[in-house]
Task: structure prediction
Amino acid sequence: MNNKLNFLSLLFLWLLVSNYGIAQVQLNKVKDPELITRWTKDVIRSEQPLSEYPRPQMTRGNWRCLNGTWDFSITPVNEKMPTNFERKILVPFPLESSLSGVKENLTTGKALWYNKIISFSKRDRNGRILLHFGAVDWKATVYVNNKEIGEHIGGYTSFTFDITKDVKEGNNSITVKVEDPTDLGYGPHGKQSTNPDNIYYTSVSGIWQTVWLEYVPINYISDVKLRTNIDSQTVSITARSAKTNDIQISIFEEGRLIANKIGRSNHECNVYIKKPRLWSPNDPFLYDVEIKLITDGHVDDSVQSYAGMRKVSLQKDQLGYSRIFLNDKYIYNLGVLDQGYWPDGLYTAPTDEALKFDLQVEKALGFNTVRKHIKVEPARWYYHADKLGLLVWQDFVNPNQALPEGSKVAFEKQIKETISQLWNSPSIITWVIFNEKWGQYDQERLTNMVRDADPYRLVNGHSGELLYVNNVLRSPSPNAYVNSDIVDVHSYPYPKDPPIVGQSVKVVGEFGGFAMSVDDHIWDDMKGGWGYNGLNSQSKLTKEYSDCIDTLVKLEKQGLSGSIYTQPFDVETELNGLMTYDREILKIPIGRIRDLNSKLNLSLNGKSDQILQFDVYDEKDDFKSMDEMRKRFSSGRNDSSFLRKYTSKLLSISDSIEYNKVSKKYIEMIVSPFMTVNIKYLEATAKRPNDYSFDFICKNYSNLNKLFEGKRAISKVRGIIEYDIYRNIQNDTNYAFDKRRLNQILNEYGIISELPMLKQLALFYYTRYDISNFVRVKDSIHKKYPGEVSIFDMNNDAWLVFERSNNKNELESALNWSKNVISSEKTGNYYDTYANLLYKLGRTNEAIKFQEIATELPPGNGSQSSIKSSLSKMKQGLPTWQ
Result:
């Protein structure tokens, strides 16, 4: 196994090299990485990361990359633009990533502001100046010289503003305001979570793809759409421009001009190619395309593009099974579930080489298909897929699973933008609309909508609408896969035959997920990892994978046309990749995987021709026993990585004596400012009030409370304190929750205990039917700790008062809590609470209005029938609280 230098060692080496003049480069700050990749150092030394031309399907020479260091600030969302931007961030890496140099979460109610000074010459302003953003998550408002020029909502698609009239010669400011509630908002957010764990990952906010300027003529080509037809041997091209002009289209094969045609912009132009060379995974040949916009014989604008001649269709094979055909030939889609996450850059690959590397690995392992899972990648990812020859199933990013107001509109807007943006890529053969019922609605209508928008690709209406886990069907559907080209089941861990539905093709859209960890290559060695079967050896993982392939071979003979293995790389706490998250260790030898995959990918022959550098897992490098770890600790080994790993092992066998020694040693090493990995250790090991980590969190409350990860550790300790208080109350029938007791708790634990103490005090009053004091204490909690009380709990508090109280002041307090709830999330049960409180306060007309809204919303945790029943009682003037 490769013994990598740790991050600090690498940084010291680069600083040393730079200081002695061997390589004079700007070093970027990388903040507190859990894992680094081989490309992290390239970002550290880069003056302008990801500086490749960002749009390979429509290239021009006159452009300017704006990636690099920007100024930034974080403010309350309703505040005006800051006058000072005192901090630095590395664009295009998201705020939460290590490579951004910041690694902070954008919390609810906050706005992230970017600012950069750009200089323009007089010559720059001769034509038009376009400001392009690859992607900004989620809502971006763009200003030039403090003037708002536009807004874009949606975290996955590109957008452009013409800023010609807004800039001046000399220095200009470009400012971007970003709002991003992630899973607390209505917009599509994919696997991002404000509380990452299991199959959900760290949230991403702000600019995460390239920002760039393009200098174009007054009349220019604004868009190019290509479509190939192998039956008519034509490439159909539509070039958009503000004014309709002549266009000249030239097509080249390996540098040789093979077709030339004059057409008109804003009209489709068909160019004939004699004996076209077809694009496929075995021969991913691309034709070069040049398009010129012409006025009176003068070339106004010229762009370069490319086209892959290929056809995707559903056809019957010789046995009568519906199959996926590429270029009129059946091809089994042997694929992997690609999440597109990176340990150092999160949504953003550290370099273009890294972006390409993932696809190279997947092709080298013998796969011919990639399911791009609930994420839209930068344009260059699809370019690499086109060049390498991988079939892509492209997921749309699912709507918020709770379907709050606005989510459906946002989802459908994103679908249309995604199809338009990725239209030209020959590698994309399938659109995937829904995944495992996450936010599922109007499936038949949306399937038809996508098919109408793009009749040249397959439509997978729902990947995993039928979900099996350990052979048990978790999500039955009475009318599954309506109108879909594909019947797609998810079956974990072992693949299962999909049902036959009409003429649709059968695939297993997800299977596998076998967990196997590799020491020193884990995102969070305290939290452990997630995956199926918990394997601990290469031989076991290989056997499981081999058994799955053998099952797929049998199912293929019964009509199965494709399968997607979960997954190529570990992702954060998911340890079910064929390769580690840092892209360093392959868990099964490449030759073995290729041999197994060749049973389904019949085009595989011989060794991979990809030149890739990575290590293969070697069990001899792992610690074989606890005795070995004890020996190393007693001999003086106390580096932080080893201590975290050893602690995790000790916790698993409940050796409290040795655990206390190791934990004490580790915690003594923690100093402010606290690294994320240290805070995670504290959170994982704070289990009882006498733990060293528990005491450390209590004593360092104020510093930890400033950090997102620190808040999680504080929450863990508060839960322990709250349970301790509750246990004492339950064990003492004469428990007196008086001022003396409150001071005793505060003195024992510090200010960190105030919130759990108030929660238990409120419960104390509630169980004694003292609603007046219950409301008094809850009011104090909601005002003093608004961000610490979930809307679910706040709604429950309001409902309890509604049921138990007739006091106007108490009901008014509960109404204020409920108002905060419905302003945060719109579900039927939350509106039901608000309407019932209004009704009990005598505000009948308002109550009926809000209750009618409640009947139209998703019920949430409530019952639609009870909501309608309450509405009926309100209209009849009957009590709803009996």
